[in-house]
Amino acid sequence: MIVLYSYPTLFGVADNNGYGLKVFAFLRLVGLPFRHEHVFDASHAPRGQLPYIVDDGETIGDSNTIIAHLISKYRLMIDAALDARQRDLNLLVVRLLDDLYWVMSYSRWKDERYWPAFSAALMREHPHLTDDDIVQAREFNLKRYYFQGIGRYEPDAAYARGLADLHVLADLIAPNDYVHGAKPTSVDAAIYGFVANIHFYDIDTPLKEFVSGHPALVRHCEAIHEAVKRGL
Question: What pairing do the DSSP bridges indicate for beta strands 58-61 and 52-55?
């Protein structure tokens, strides 16, 4: 059986990190059986990053690589009907989500307005975590933000980046469909991974305020959420 290793749950979503939730949603949408193992310390993961899977003894990291591997190995048809232009759009969306990731993470671990509520929620849902665990994770993330660049932004400038990303997604998603029509594809799983971690996030950041004000984003997120819960 496939084993997915990813970060812990939070606020009712299966992974509080967009990349792990993206892979979780993909696996559920395509109906592949798997076991989900939650990890807080990523130091033993490939390249020190979550998520990763173990599939027949093969360890595979990076959410996009994981999804490509699963589509190829298991001959999955979720993206089979997409043309070249749609596949190009998928790549652009995935790269946009990479940018959104940093702003989402900034809102949790760096912004002093939201950090106390976020850290308290983590420890409330996962009481095995210690104060030292949380402090070390925060220090690690603050270093990452500085070297990536987002950590040198003032909050308003950081959120401006994330809101611009969300605006594109809001324009992309049709009111009653998925990105490429009536059925979800892998890009919908990717979008869900990030938007769900904003929509269901029980702390009112500027990102959450934007999503809440855009019905198409909310509908898309909740539709995928229900599909993921029941499987397709």
Answer: antiparallel
Alpha carbons 2 and 125: distance in angstroms, whole number: 26
Closest CA to 158 of 201, 206, 103: 103
Residue ranges of alpha helices (H) inside 83-130 are: 84-109, 115-125
Contact 51, 66 (CB under 8 A): yes
Instruction: Give backbone dihedrals phi and psi of 48, rounded to 5 degrees, phi first.
Output: 65, 30
Q: Which residue, 204, 195, 40, is CA-closest to 118?
A: 204
Distance CA(91)–CA(95), nearest Å, equals 6
Q: Which residues contact 144 (CB under 8 A, 6 or more apart)?
A: 151
Decide the pairing of beta strands 58-61 and 34-38: unpaired
Q: What is the pLDDT of residues 39-98, one digit of tens each?
A: 998 888 999 899 999 999 999 999 999 999 999 999 999 999 999 999 999 999 999 999
Q: DSSP assignment, residue 46?
A: G
Q: Do the beta carbons of residue 110 and residue 145 sit within 8 Å?
A: yes
29 neighbors 71 (Cβ within 8 angstroms):
no
The whole model's pTM is what? 0.95
CA distance 164 to 150: 15
Q: List % helix, strand, coil for the chain (3-state, nearest 5).
A: 60, 10, 30
